[in-house]
Write a structure and sequence with these properties.
This protein is mainly α. Helix content is 58%, strand content 2%. The protein is built from 31 helices and five strands. It has a three-stranded antiparallel beta sheet with strand order 4-3-5. A two-stranded antiparallel ribbon has the order 1-2. Strand 3 and strand 4 form a beta hairpin.
């Protein structure tokens, strides 16, 4: 009797034409509802709500709460399919009932081995849709799904990826599952529809997990063939994900641009911002499409979020595309209204872009600096450097703010990376702040940190500017020797979790340099007035040539012979005679990090791979294994001019500086999935900042 009644009731639930008919059965027959009737009623309500606009009415009906109570009482009797269908129904209805969700989670953990691939997908998708993170259940589903991936269809694979990404779980927690899905997706990629393709790429990008170029190549090929069927948001999400995964495919970009051109009228502000950001990161200029994007963005500029505004102008600057004064003015006005909601990186990117375009709006800069002061504690060292560069470029010098920036930079000195160091040094020189104490510390740290060509070029420009402004390096820089730089470098290594053995080698080298510094502090190098100057290019270490850190014809600073003998004793230098390149080794010479050697017109590669420009001399620091020729070296040293190795031995330059801003990294990567779920605002802060000129 009871079973027959339940069957007849189930037929009535399935045959109901609207949600009112289903809830009428709930009202009349709730006492005889079994687990099958409960699951069927929830599932039917969700399907009707999905296909109509009456979800709000269903949620407000008190009979739904009665059905939920009945479900909680009978959860132990639910099969795996009924559990997953009930979770799916809650998500589709947006019915976020914590007691019911927790009950489903507990029963699912007990019966997970009996879940099939569809049950696993529906369950994890439902919790992600409701923004409910069941950590224990997620771990269990990840392990169970790994053994059943062969049975997942394309939508199941894509939805599983989407769910894990939406719940903000990082990819390294589930590498086996994500790699397994990538392999399985490669086999079934031809059956992926546009939504599956876009969601899969978006999920891997959100998880910061690279699935391998093999899968991305197949996805790109599939997209090219199906691009006409992509919706605007799917196009924007796809290209955003490819940029985040650093995968550049010309045919894919061309196809997406072609499709976007025809659908641009349907792009919302976030789609526009994400598309611009992706083009900038991938360094792809879409041609005439960019002008159309600007026009579309201008029409809906008031609907842009603060991050959308920041990302858009940053991308335009990165692509060197000037949108015109009218567009920039509208962006500035809109940003002024939303300035309090800007993130620290958004503020920096916004200021950087306007500095790049040379657009100075006093009211806007006042608002930005005021907001920066309130959020300065959240700024990274790269943010501090890029903001300082923007202020310098716009010739906007807020005294109180700069004081706070310099104080914070000094406190976070050990966190500076090479690009930020070079950028900050360049900016402070442009602002005539190279006499402040923190500048000397930044300079010292750069002697052991800066090695990349772009950063070295930026340092060279800072030196050029100092020469033009004052003719010599600041005395503070000369007084701060390599010991301070090495100490800061040790702190940086500690905070970057370097290996202990590597750290010990650095400490040993510091002892060696400290001995030299003790001598330098007593020598004539501590006073610029005691240095002898020559312009003879044939002498050793002339500040010229392209191989050194600051190449080109110029002046050099020399020491006296007596000091060179003392320096040779402490440092153990190894020299080459210019005409014949004959090596005169020393027994105590330290091993070089770069082992640099120069020829005619080249520069001297220093102890850490940084050298001063050299004319025609051939010098290097070399490690010697017990060859005893100290006396010969001393005699040779008397015949040569000792080349300064570091910034504080810098040769005076004779040519004018070359102006140019450092490149700012991407701002945020905020994005929506196909269910309008917000992406993480974490950008690729690892993106490099290079020279735009």
């Amino acid at each position: 009797g009871a079973i027959e009644k339940a069957k007849r009731l189930n037929y009535k639930l399935k045959d109901a034409k609207d949600w009112k008919g289903i809830l009428r059965q709930v009202e009349i027959n709730l006492d005889i509802f079994n687990e099958v009737n409960i699951a069927t009623a929830l599932h039917r309500l969700a399907k009707i709500a999905r296909d109509s606009n009456e979800k709000t009415k269903i949620l407000r009906d008190p009979r739904l709460a009665s059905l939920e109570t009945k479900a909680q009482e009978n959860l132990k009797l639910f099969t795996p399919q009924q559990l997953s269908n009930s979770a799916w129904a809650c998500a589709t209805l947006s019915y976020n009932s914590m007691p019911l969700l927790r009950g489903i989670e507990q029963q699912a953990l007990l019966k997970l081995e009996k879940f099939n691939s569809q049950d696993l997908t529906n369950t994890i998708w439902a919790y992600a849709k409701l923004s409910y993170k069941p950590k224990q259940l997620m771990n269990a589903i990840a392990k169970e799904a790994l053994h059943k991936l062969y049975d997942f269809n394309p939508q199941g694979l894509a939805n599983t990826l989407w769910a894990f990404a939406t719940l903000n779980h990082y990819g390294e927690q589930y590498p086996d599952l994500l790699s397994g899905i990538a392999v399985e997706a490669s086999k079934k990629i031809q059956n992926f529809n546009p939504q599956n393709l876009a969601n899969s790429c978006w999920a891997y990008a959100r998880l910061n997990f690279h699935p391998g170029n093999a899968l991305l190549e197949k996805i790109a090929q599939a997209v090219v063939h199906k691009v006409d069927y992509f919706k605007p948001q799917e196009l924007a999400n796809l290209i955003w994900a490819m940029a985040k995964l650093n995968y550049r495919c010309e045919s894919l970009l061309a196809s997406v641009s072609y499709a976007a051109d025809r659908r641009l009228g349907s792009y919302n502000p976030q789609n526009l911002a994400n598309t611009c950001w992706a083009y900038a990161v991938l360094e792809y200029h879409p041609g005439p499409l960019m002008h159309k994007i600007i026009l579309q963005a201008e029409r809906c500029i008031t609907d842009f979020s603060q991050q959308g505004l920041s990302n858009t102008v940053w991308a335009l600057a990165k692509l060197r595309y000037n949108p015109g004064d009218q567009f920039l003015l509208k962006v500035a006005c809109e940003a002024s209204k939303k300035i309090t909601s800007f993130s620290p990186q958004g503020l920096v990117n916004f200021a950087w872009a306007f500095a790049f375009f040379g657009k100075y709006y006093l009211d806007l800069m006042d608002l930005i600096c005021r907001e920066v002061e309130t959020k300065l504690h959240a700024f990274t060292t790269q943010d501090l450097a890029s903001l300082t560069w923007a202020l310098a470029k716009l010739e906007y010098h807020p005294g109180p703010l700069m004081t706070k920036i310099l104080e914070l930079s000094e406190r976070r000195l050990c966190y500076f990376q090479a690009p930020a160091l070079a950028e900050m040094i360049y900016a402070l020189v442009e602002m005539d702040l190279y006499q402040v104490p923190v500048f000397a510390k930044l300079w010292d740290l750069s002697t052991v940190m800066v090695q990349g060509e772009k950063e070295i070029e930026m340092i060279r420009r800072a030196v050029d500017a100092m020469v033009v402004k004052g003719g010599v390096l600041p005395v503070e820089v000369a007084k701060h020797g390599q010991v301070a730089g090495r100490q800061h470098h040790q702190q940086h290594q500690h905070h970057q979790h370097h290996l202990h053995q590597q750290h010990q080698r650095s400490l040993q080298r510091d002892v060696h340099i400290a001995s030299a510094e003790a001598l330098l502090s007593q020598s004539s190098i501590s006073s610029l007035s005691s240095l002898s100057v020559t312009s003879t290019q044939a002498t050793a270490a002339t500040a010229g040539g392209a191989g050194g850190m600051w190449g080109g014809p110029g002046w050099e600073l020399r020491e006296t012979d007596s000091f060179k003998r003392q320096a040779e004793s402490l440092l153990g230098l190894s020299f080459f005679d210019a005409p014949g390149q004959k090596e005169v080794p020393l027994p105590s010479a330290p091993k070089t990090a770069a082992g640099a050697k120069v020829g005619p017109g080249g520069g001297l590669g220093g102890y850490d791979g940084l050298g001063l420009g050299g004319g025609s001399s051939h010098h290097r620091f070399d490690h010697d294994h017990g060859r005893g020729h100290r006396q010969a070296a001393a005699e040779q040293l008397q015949q040569q001019q000792w080349a300064p190795r570091r910034h504080e031995r810098l040769a005076l330059r004779t040519h004018a500086p070359v102006q140019g801003p450092p490149e700012r990294s991407q701002g945020g990567d905020n994005n929506n999935n196909n269910n309008n779920s917000n992406n993480s605002t974490k950008a690729l802060k690892a993106a490099t900042r290079s020279d735009l000129f």
